[in-house]
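Suppose a classmate hands you a notebook page containing two proteins, each written out with its sequence and a corresponding row of structure tokens. How would you begin to make sense of it? This section walks through that situation. The first entry is reproduced here exactly as it would appear on such a page.
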Amino acid sequence: MADEEKTVKKAASKKATARKAVAKKAVAKKAVAKKAVAKKAVAKKAASKTAAKAAAPKAAPEKAAAVKSDSAVKRLSVTMVRSKHGRLKSHKACIAGLGLRRMHQTVEVIDTPENRGMINKVHYMLNVEEA
């Protein structure tokens, strides 16, 4: 009986090693296939970039935006008077975007449409004055 058990164990171990070898071969084939696909994709991207460069006319260089002096820039003084705890995630993000961290903190922000939008979204938590 002991001999039979040994032969069964040997047969089982041979099957396991055979399975491992087959698995290794399959993994190697997949890796080779992936590399070939990646090389083709890189070649396609390079070809499309060169074609795009040849077809696209050269655009005029962009002009730098005129910088306004500090006295000409309109500023707003924003103070948080209500807590941000328990508010919507987007409202908390607007408060952070304005640079406010705690209650009764005042910051000065430039009067832009982006800042106005954030202020309008959380107007019920803020006091806004022109600076």
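The notebook's second entry, a different protein, reads as follows.
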Amino acid sequence: MAPAGRKKVLHKIADLIEQYAVELTVLGVRDNGTEFNMALKAEAGSAAGTFRYYAEAIDKIYGEIAPTAPNVLGLVHHAPVGVVGAIVPWNFPLMIGAWKLAPALAAGNSVVLKPAETASLSLLKLAEICSEAGLPDGVLNVVTGAGAVTGEALAMSMDVDVLVFTGSAATGRRLLEYSARSNLKRVYLELGGKSPNVVFADAPDLAQAAKVSAMGIFRNSGQVCVAGSRLLVERSVQDEFVALMAAEAEKLVVGDPLDLGSQIGAVNSPQQLEGNLNFVEKALVEGAELATGGARILQETGGYYMAPTILTGVERDHNVFQNEVFGPVLAVTPFDTEAEAVALANGTDHGLAAGVWTENLSRAHRMIGAIRAGVVHVNTYGGADNTVPLGGVKQSGNGHDKSLHALDKYTDLKTAWIQL
């Protein structure tokens, strides 16, 4: 299909996502417990925007003509890779699914998409939408099943040319092994993080920083890959800032994700809730102190809810400093100097995102350069749109979702060297 034809189909998919936005959002919320108001924007709203972005991009991507001798013509084509396998997580299945699916389809590939076992409903509906929009049969297949069965089969397939994945580091390692055991397919991984949110004493507005930072860790019950789960705060303002953060955390309304009054929804599963609470328990044993939260709440409802939690006195060698909780748990560590802040920020194996709060422009640029992360927010946390890439360094993965750079995963460069 010509790029203009693909563009038309992708726009129609976006139109239908917007038409079915409430249904898609409710399906997702029933699966994963994300609060409805956030999910409406972050799932259906984001997915529609992603399909529109790549619909508009694909007929504006050109090949190249090499600077050759007059009797030679060198052409560089952007060719589709063929078949893309995409494995997506349960926290934002529609948003992340669109990050994989839209650029892959725009580039002219076919896709086999595997949802998480606990969050497939919105992506099955998306498959129906794509068919209704005119996507040819077979170009997209959504296949459910356990990771150890369906995911492994997809990763081991000799007919899959590229595999893209968002999820845990342990699964990412297995996918690399499966690639080596099969056809050496390219594997692009986004493996989460332990993102530092660095607050200097000269932050423009500590109260605003606390409000934004609270949502940066507690939205969706902390089940966000880029969540600012480590608060690194200059010692001179630590007590003031932690108090502001605790006040913000305690104001948040945790409850039924389909209740429009809820600001924070449910934890995804009993296993996830148990893991969150175990992190808190171990942190306290290691010497951290509880500033707020730390317990399961609303147990009488039968749902899996956890109070937004802040732990202070967290040291660099503590488990909760080093490892991703993927829950509403914030670890607080003070620092005295900029150099110490950088060392702490880079003191884990992860490198997905970070935040820096300062009114000193030079310091902001120094921190952007010094922190090893794929995204560094300055005087905000979150909100980056499709115009910029999202990807990690170190053990947070490789490759990028979003922006024109995402197309690199789904195309091969093919050279034509023509003697005239």
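A careful reader of the second entry would note: The longest strand covers residues 72-80.
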